[in-house]
Design goal:
By secondary structure, this protein is an alpha/beta fold. 31% of the residues lie in helices and 27% in strands. It has helices spanning 51-64, 87-98, 115-121, 135-145, 162-177, 181-201, 249-256, and strands spanning 6-7, 10-11, 17-18, 25-27, 30-34, 40-48, 71-80, 105-109, 130-132, 151-156, 206-213, 216-223, 259-265, 268-275.
């Protein structure tokens, strides 16, 4: 499997981008973990390489690139690939990551005395993908190379009043960054619903983050549970109730955000959303 399921305009599938298994795994042998605001994402690959494992890895990278993090580390220490059969996928991943703007740091962590390591070092992939012998080295190096991103962050209690605090955080950040009001209106609404959903369903302390990535606003809420958001459809073959119709929490997020999703994170999960400028938005004063 050597195709990463993403094109330059975003993932082929529409949002949301949810990792489908509660906990940390997209498939039985692929684990995904983010930090609290999805700046850095780690993908662990376990077991013997196969076509099905390649499909799971490709799906994981594609979902991560739906709203690209600043850095991706693929931990291949537990990968059994004596013949370097997975190499086409890592070359495809490098091409997909290279097409992303803003730039995404991409690193592979794998033992030096492997056929895959040796073959990667003999290609032109090395200037674009950093190779490290340990995960600690990869984390330190990628973190040092991350470009600074304007960010506002706050820890909040599992209380309904936190939605208002989160809206205020978006307003203050938008004023600092001189963003247009129509963009901020959508961002406040989306952030409010993300926080209320976390308060109602997680019931833990949350970390709310607003960051300005390029022209977009990236919103995230980290909570202390590993269960993903419950996204169900009235048209589902399982017959479950509608949760994404207009007027429901995640339905409002779906309508207001240009992309959104969730992924496992250390100590819980992070639910994120992106609000992008639209043609009807006027320019903020002073720009």
């Amino acid at each position: 499997m050597s195709v990463i399921d993403r094109d330059p305009s975003g993932a082929h599938a529409p949002p949301p981008y949810l990792f489908t298994t509660p906990g940390t795994r997209i498939g039985p042998l692929v684990s995904v973990t983010a930090d609290s605001d999805t700046t850095l994402v780690e993908i662990g690959v376990h077991g013997r390489w196969s076509r099905s494992l390649g499909a799971d890895v490709s799906a994981a990278i594609g979902k991560c690139l739906a709203e690209p993090p600043a850095g991706i580390i693929a931990d291949l220490y537990d990968l059994g690939d004596p013949d370097a059969a997975s190499m086409p996928l890592w070359l495809a991943a490098r091409r997909a990551v290279s097409a992303v703007q803003p730039a995404v740091q991409f690193a592979l962590c794998l033992p030096t005395a492997t056929a895959l390591n040796r073959r990667l070092r003999r290609t032109d992939v090395v200037p674009h993908v950093f190779l490290f012998a340990t995960l600690a080295e990869a984390r330190a190096a990628v973190t040092r190379r991350l470009a600074p991103v304007p960010r506002r962050q706050a820890d909040m209690p599992p209380h309904s009043a936190s939605a208002g605090l989160a809206r205020d955080l978006v307003t203050r950040a938008g004023a600092d960054w001189n963003l247009p009001e129509p963009l901020l209106m959508r961002a406040r609404l989306v952030m409010s619903e993300l926080v209320v959903n976390a308060v109602e369903h997680a019931g833990t302390r949350i970390r709310v983050t607003v960051s300005h990535r390029g022209a977009d606003l990236h919103l995230s809420v980290h909570d202390g549970t590993t269960s993903r958001p419950s996204l169900r459809s009235a048209q589902s073959s399982s017959g479950t109730e509608v949760l994404t119709r207009p007027g429901t929490r995640l339905g409002i997020v779906q309508a207001g955000a240009d992309a959104w999703g969730s992924m496992p994170a250390r100590g819980g999960k992070v639910v994120w959303a992106v609000v992008r400028p639209r043609s009807g938005d006027c320019t903020a004063p002073g720009l």
